[in-house]
Amino acid sequence: MNRIVLRTVFVLLAGAGAAAAANAATVPCENVLKQLRDAEKTAALGDADKAKVAELENKGIERCNADDDKRADTFFEDALKIVAKK
Question: Where are the domains of the chain?
């Protein structure tokens, strides 16, 4: 009986820890979008880079509006990489 209780507690704690780790890794997409927009203000981008950043920003906003922060953050971070190169 005690073994069953201990196993159940262990499984529940392991699951809770995994869920907490998954949520901790995601930054709210609104925060990353603000970082991107702040970086864009001072960046001198060519037309091709501006178009790519705008495309990534729009895709990120779409995912952010769908409450898919993880994918939105990926789009915003890709755009930030382009902005940071300039």
Answer: 2-85
